[in-house]
Amino acid sequence: MFCISLFLLFFFNATLSIKICSFNVRSFGEAKRARPEVLDVIVKVISRCDIMLLMEIKDNSNKICPLLIENLNGMRGYQEEYDYVISKRLGRKSYKEQYAFIYRSNVVSVKQTYQYPDIQPGDVDAFSREPFVVWFKSPKTVVKEFVIIPQHTTPETAVREIDELYDVYLDVKQRWKSKNFIFMGDFNADCGYVPKKHWKNIRLRTHSEFVWLIGDKNDTTVRNSTNCAYDRIVIHGEKLINAVVPNSADIIDFQKVFGMTEEQVWPPFWPFWNDEALCLEEKQ
C-alpha cells in the first residue's frame, strides 16, 4: 500500500515546526521519471516536508534523486536547500527497491546511516527489503537527534516483518545509544495482511513504550472501495513523544490536495497513495 504520512516536531517558536513524511511512489523508475506532469506532483509533495522518506524507488540509473534535488532547489520562490541519502538496491533475487531520504539541509543533517544486515542468528533474511536506518541531527528542535527506521513490507509477510522491527530497534539502540526512534513507512499493517488476532505477535505493538500515531481506524488508501491503515508511524522515546505536535500525525489526501481523480492516483496512471506526515515541536 502507498501513502504519505507526516508528523511535526516543535521548534524554538511554537508557531513553526519540522515536518517528517513518508511517501511510497509505486514503481518509481525511469517511466515515471520521464513524465514531467508526474514528476511535478512528486516534487510538490516533497516540498511540503522537511524530511521525506521515499519508498519503492526502482531506477537502475540512479538518476531519480539527483533529478528531484535539482527540481527542488530550482523551485521558484523557494530558498531552501535539499540533499539526500539513499540505500543500496534491496530485495531478494532480481526484484530490487531502494529507500531514500530527501531533507532540507538547512534544517536537519544526517549524522550517520546504517544498512541493517538482516543476518540475525536463527532468523536470517526476515525482511524483503531490510531497513536503511538514518540518524538525523535537528539543532532547532527540542529533540536534537532522532533515528528513523523505514520499512516497506511484503504484504504476505507483514506480520513477521513488523515484529522484526523490534530487533532492528535493539540493534540500533545498542550501536548508536540513541533514545529517540521513529518507525514509518508502508507496513501493509491492516485488513487481510495483519488481522486483529495477529497483533499479539508484534512486539512493536505489545510493548507499551512504542506509540502508534497512525491508528487502526485511519484509511491510508486512495480507493473509495477500501478502508485500511496500511501505512503507519510509530515512535519511541519519552522526549520525542513529548515533542510531537498534538494531532499532527495525519494523512495527506492526493485527491483533495491536488484535485486529482481516483483514476489518476490509481495504477497504472499516476500510481500514488495518500501521504502521511508528522510534526515535531520547536524548542522554547
UniProtKB/TrEMBL annotation:
<feature type="domain" description="Endonuclease/exonuclease/phosphatase">
    <location>
        <begin position="21"/>
        <end position="238"/>
    </location>
</feature>
<keyword id="KW-0540">Nuclease</keyword>
<feature type="signal peptide">
    <location>
        <begin position="1"/>
        <end position="17"/>
    </location>
</feature>
<dbReference type="GO" id="GO:0010623">
    <property type="term" value="P:programmed cell death involved in cell development"/>
</dbReference>
<keyword id="KW-0732">Signal</keyword>
<dbReference type="GO" id="GO:0004530">
    <property type="term" value="F:deoxyribonuclease I activity"/>
</dbReference>
<dbReference type="InterPro" id="IPR016202">
    <property type="entry name" value="DNase_I"/>
</dbReference>
<dbReference type="GO" id="GO:0003677">
    <property type="term" value="F:DNA binding"/>
</dbReference>
<dbReference type="GO" id="GO:0005634">
    <property type="term" value="C:nucleus"/>
</dbReference>
<protein>
    <recommendedName>
        <fullName>Deoxyribonuclease</fullName>
    </recommendedName>
</protein>
<dbReference type="InterPro" id="IPR018057">
    <property type="entry name" value="Deoxyribonuclease-1_AS"/>
</dbReference>
<comment type="similarity">
    <text>Belongs to the DNase I family.</text>
</comment>
<feature type="active site">
    <location>
        <position position="152"/>
    </location>
</feature>
<dbReference type="Pfam" id="PF03372">
    <property type="entry name" value="Exo_endo_phos"/>
</dbReference>
<dbReference type="InterPro" id="IPR005135">
    <property type="entry name" value="Endo/exonuclease/phosphatase"/>
</dbReference>
<dbReference type="InterPro" id="IPR036691">
    <property type="entry name" value="Endo/exonu/phosph_ase_sf"/>
</dbReference>
<feature type="active site">
    <location>
        <position position="97"/>
    </location>
</feature>
<feature type="disulfide bond" description="Essential for enzymatic activity">
    <location>
        <begin position="191"/>
        <end position="228"/>
    </location>
</feature>
<keyword id="KW-0378">Hydrolase</keyword>
<keyword id="KW-0255">Endonuclease</keyword>
<keyword id="KW-1015">Disulfide bond</keyword>
<dbReference type="GO" id="GO:0006309">
    <property type="term" value="P:apoptotic DNA fragmentation"/>
</dbReference>
